[in-house]
Amino acid sequence: MSNAAHAPIIEITDVSKSFGSVTALSGVNATIREGEFFSLLGPSGCGKTTLLRLIAGFEQVTGGTIVIAGKSMKGIPANQRPTNMVFQSYAIFPHLNVAENVGYGLVRKKLGKDAMRREVDEALAMVDLTGYGERKAHELSGGQRQRVALARALVMRPKVILLDEPLSALDKKLRDQMQHELRSLQKSLGITFILVTHDQEEALIMSDRIAVIFDGTIAQLATPEELYRRPATRKVASFIGVMNFLEASATGGGNTPYQLTISALGDVEIDASRAPDRLKASDVTVVGVRPEMFTIVDEDTGNFERQVQGKVTSTDYYGDMTYYTVALPGASNPVTISMRNTAGRAVAREGTQVTVGWGADSIVLLE
Amino acid sequence: MMGVIGRFISSNWLAVYAVAYMLFLYAPVILLPLFAFNDATIIAFPLSGYTTKWFDLLWTTEALHGAVRNSAFVALSTALISTLLGACAARSAANHHFPGQKGVMGFIMLPLVLPEIIVAVALLVMLMQLGMSLSLWTVIAGHVLICTPFSIAILSSAFAGMESSLEEASFDLGETRWGTFRRVTLPLIMPGVISSLLITFTISLDEFIISFFLTGTDVTLPVYIWSQLRFPSKLPSVMALGTILLVVSVALLFVAEIFRRRAARRQGAGPGSTQGLV
Known about the structure:
By secondary structure, chain A is α+β, with helices and mostly antiparallel strands.
């Protein structure tokens, strides 16, 4: 943590925001590190965009503090903050051409004509739009508008770039491409990016760390891998990817391993280090299992240490993957199981009796 | 023969109605230039010959020139003031919401539907009570009252078409509020502003009732024309003047419409549209 690359660039302490009687955010704490790709992920209306606008300076906090690059942002308006925003609508100035759009913020810096053109050209090159300077705003495609908006922010050399759902208006193919481009651009420039998104897949692909926001508070702040493998709460678990919830009860915890009884699977012991910090054994009512953590046992997979019998109730064939819904005795809801379709593997059809294999490490303890 | 016409009317009654309607509406207006070029003092058919002497007469009438100057001053001031006020009201209505907003906006728009004579008399009574003497400025005040609603209506659509994140983007890029207005807001609403200036100018130029009640010793053009109607010998030159006014008004409204359409087009092509969205 003493490494300069990991120094905090934004410190958000106990931030709350209310609009009249409506509370948009409360008790938000987060530290965003320099050079990090940080995402604010949550369903619409959860307060993620409000948090971004508080950082940008379009809104002022009701309580708490935001410190950017060691300086308190209290009372500092958006035009004096070391942040620049890429808007959801891109907000390209329709009366200016691409070069004038990109150079908009430089005009106030009074660089001189040549220096300014150099900066603009450089920024356009970064986003792969060399030679587009003379284009009019309405001649650009959605993806190009997005690049212009990004170049316009980059040219200001901000400490932090804020992106408000920048990919939501693009079609799927372009979105996939832009996700990788944005990510590699961020890595090569080393600028901190903060991305607001409601798309969990996008957040997982692009981010170094993700803050999952529900109802105006951060439910979990973790790396994509942690978030997927160890979601802290049931709500986070069902928001990120697909999760099976199985009824369970537990004893132990604290310094001793948890002794779980899962009605559909049987008894299992799980190390306390794998549980969320605040978890108490008496509070456990369900555990989570990801679909890929179950295996439908066949000759390829071999036998598992722990196996239960089940019956396939439906089969969804996706080409590379097959998603099965399997009824397990003792489980009130059938579980979803995903299997990779390897060359020799037969697809089990509806009504087939199958053996489901699992391991202790596939069980996720939830708050 | 009658049967043919009857059949034509019954099968094309809508077209016939439309033509009759247009004739009724515009025939009197067409008479204006007709008699303005007629070489006779009496306004009656048959026409007796072509002349431009009534127009020549206008160039030598000093009182008329004074009235033209007054009208130009009043119309220009009215256009500037009501467009400025209209821009402020339209901007606040487009971007902010406050309690009682609908009521306040309705109140501002009210002069649009109030009988002008009522407005004029009420203003006159009030000015008298305040002990203010009548002048061109009182006429301007009255004209601003009735022109501002038009201004708001035109500029509201200009502001509504402008995406609010454009101003935020400018602010985010380090520009000040004034700089944002100058570099982003104003250029985008400019066609609306020009359209508003032209329309309020035209309304003020043609307005008679308020000018008549609120004017002092300096008369505006419509009031001057009205005063000339008492002298039959002056009638042809009034026709000539009317012709000029007609042409100027139509030209101004035509230009205003061009600017209004350009504004709509500019914003239609802007990022405010759903272009590229689902």
